[in-house]
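User: Sequence for 6-phospho-beta-glucosidase below. Tokens please.
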Amino acid sequence: MVNNTFLWGGASAANQIEGAYVTDGRGLSNIDLLPHGEDRLAIAQGRMPYNQAKADAFYPSHESIDFYHHYEEDIALMAELGVNAYRFSISWSRIFPTGLEDTPNEAGLAFYDRVIDLLLENGIEPIVTICHFDVPKGLMDAFESWKNRQMIAMYEKYAVTLFERYKGKVKYWISFNEINMILHKPFTGAGLQIDEATENRQQVIYQAAHYEMVASALATKRLRAIDPDAQLGSMLAAGDYYPYSANPEDVLVAQRANQENFFFLDVQSRGAYPRWVLKDFERQGIQIDMTEEDLALLAENTCDFISFSYYASRTSKADTSGVDTNTGNAAGGVVNPYLKRSEWGWMIDPTGLRIVMNTIWDRYQKPLMLVENGLGAKDTVTEDGKIHDDYRISYLEAHLDMMKRAMEEDGIPLIGYTMWSIIDLVSSSSGEMSKRYGLIYVDRNDAGQGSLKRLKKDSFAWFKDYISK
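Assistant: Structure tokens for 6-phospho-beta-glucosidase:
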């Protein structure tokens, strides 16, 4: 173990594991409207209205792996694994079914009471993401989601409800999962549908991002008053952009890509908009509804820690003609010829984890938490019910080695590591179950068929042994 207080665990998201999508009063969310199949990407990008999906489309989030009815079994497996932390999200529409209600849904709160209490009984620290790619459909209908300033008050009401309910039980909160994903998949990230015939795409995205960051700052302010012992962190889909070559044009393109990616942390950690983005807004004619009160909130309520996901580095090239751009990752870029790739085309770059840990620390000097890292791969169950996933073990071992080197040799203060994911779940990017990340296998296929039986993979025993040392 890195040290006696280090948080070792796994991570998940409500919309990817819970299922029970209309059970006990839960309302619909944006991800419940995101189908599996060929329409998924266009809808995720906000370019295709969700109601134009094929009539017979399959919606994998509706049942997922049914954590809602299997949470006791799954938490028992976590306890057996020996983890002392579990990062999960709360479903906004399970607490406020449309988002518009004044009174929360007690059945939803009671479900998370049971989950949190059982985690604590097993010595597992709950790390809670308030909003993990999650917007109630009712708020999309009423306000067009985060296009509207009124969303800040809706989020505040939701966050305060959680803070008051779980005061003293949850020490670590994360305001928005991978907040920068709004740049690439605005419907997935923030429930945004953009009519590019009548709307400026960048205007819509950056205005929504501003409202989210103000909401996060306001939640930080409210948490400090309600539960001063708790902390609230920001969360970024991280990975440095490398220049494809020493050509200054490639270096410049990579520099700008990194600026765009770290823009969110600049605001949430430093408390102010960087100059380059204000100049960029001016050049593009983007006018953000940004009040003096907003700016004061951002300045006075910066995040307590920075959480981040890391799956792969990215590579930028000024002239992409004749170069493979199929990276499989929403963040784009070009294929790095020095790296191996996963079955889904993602770059595998353990050294990139050490690089990005140094980058984030150098920029912000705030404690870090690595809350997603893992390998999506196809697993095969043998006749005797075993899953031999040496490829996953190799991936995790290489990344954990670099994580430890960043901590021990570079002095980076990391609070914890929660791998993605402790259990198989629906892939956010593709909607597939066959893109498996877990240490625990779940018998369910891409069409939603299967017994939901849980099986421990070889990586389960390996990770248990690794974190016990």
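The two ends are 5 Å apart (CA to CA).
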